[in-house]
Each structure stands twice: as C-alpha cells, then as structure tokens.
C-alpha cells in the first residue's frame, strides 16, 4: 500500500513537472478594412500577393500581426479588397511606425498602392484603406 502511494505521488510530481507552463493568451485586437482595386491592376495585385516578399512577411510578424488575410470581391462591376488581421503587440502605433519606416515595406507599397482605389473617406485623408467597425465576433 505504501509503495502504491509513493508511486502515485512520484508519478504525479513527474507529470506536473513535464507540463508546460500554462500561459494566458496575449490580448488580440482585430482589424478589418476595405479599399477599392483598379480593374486594370487586378492581375498585377494578385501576382504580387501570390509571391509576397519574404522581407515584408517577416516585418508583418515582427510588428505583431498575425492571421493577416486580404479578400477580393466584385460588386456592381467594381473590385473591392477586404483586409483582416490580428494585432498581439503592446503598442499598435509604434509597431505601425516601425513597419512604415521599413525600406522593404516602402518598396512593397510602391508596387501595391497604385493598384488600389481608396474609398472617398480614405482618399480625403490621403490613406488607402478605410477601417471597418466590428459589429460581431465569436470564438
């Protein structure tokens, strides 16, 4: 009986020591935005993203962005892009500034920006993407 108890305690200690520390998931902030896409640049835009530059993808991750997706939809003969990503960092503005200052990202934007057709509210602010309001989310 004592031997069984000792074995039970030892196996419990062993299992406890083998478990990874349970970490609280980082706070995730979700972002969605929309912009237009010039019809004559559709193939160019798709080709760029089919072969996204590794340096740009690395900078995205370095700036705490995950699950980044861009979707395409044609509505009334106009093309629109919908962007979604999750931010897990501590200071969004600092990370976005770091991304904007990156030479590879700047080169990438010189390729992609001419493909896009900002919505009027974004164009008025000299921006490309219009932020969207989240109205529903479930895990």
Could you explain the architecture of this structure?
- There is one protein chain.
- This protein has helices spanning 2-18, 42-50, 54-62, 92-100, 103-112, 120-124; strands spanning 29-37, 65-75, 78-87, 116-117, 130-131.
- The chain is of the alpha+beta class and 139 residues long.
- The protein has a single domain, classed as Alpha-Beta Plaits, CATH 3.30.70.
- Strands 1, 2, 3, 4 and 5 form a five-stranded antiparallel β-sheet that branches.
- The protein is globular.
- Mean pLDDT is 87; it is low at 3-22.
Can you tag this structure with a few keywords?
139 residues, disordered N terminus, single chain, 6 helices, five-stranded antiparallel sheet, globular, Alpha-Beta Plaits, alpha+beta
Order of helices and strands: HEHHEEHHEHE
Strand content: 15-25%
CATH topology: Alpha-Beta Plaits
SS field, number of helical segments: 6
What are the segments in which pLDDT stays under 50 over at least 5 consecutive residues? 3-22
Distance between the termini: 47 Å
**CATH architecture descriptor name:** 2-Layer Sandwich
């Amino acid at each position: 009986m004592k031997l069984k108890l000792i074995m039970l305690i030892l196996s419990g200690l062993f299992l406890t020591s083998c478990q990874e520390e349970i970490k609280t998931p980082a706070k995730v902030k979700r972002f969605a935005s929309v912009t237009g896409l010039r019809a004559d640049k559709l193939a160019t835009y798709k080709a760029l993203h089919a072969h996204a530059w590794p340096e740009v993808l690395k900078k995205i991750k370095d700036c705490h962005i995950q699950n980044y997706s861009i979707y395409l939809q044609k509505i009334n003969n106009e093309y629109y892009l919908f962007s979604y990503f999750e931010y897990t960092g501590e200071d969004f503005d600092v990370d976005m500034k770091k991304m904007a200052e990156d030479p590879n990202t700047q080169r990438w934007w010189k390729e992609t920006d001419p493909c896009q057709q900002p919505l009027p509210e974004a164009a008025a602010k000299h921006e490309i993407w219009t932020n969207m309001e989240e109205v529903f989310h479930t895990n």
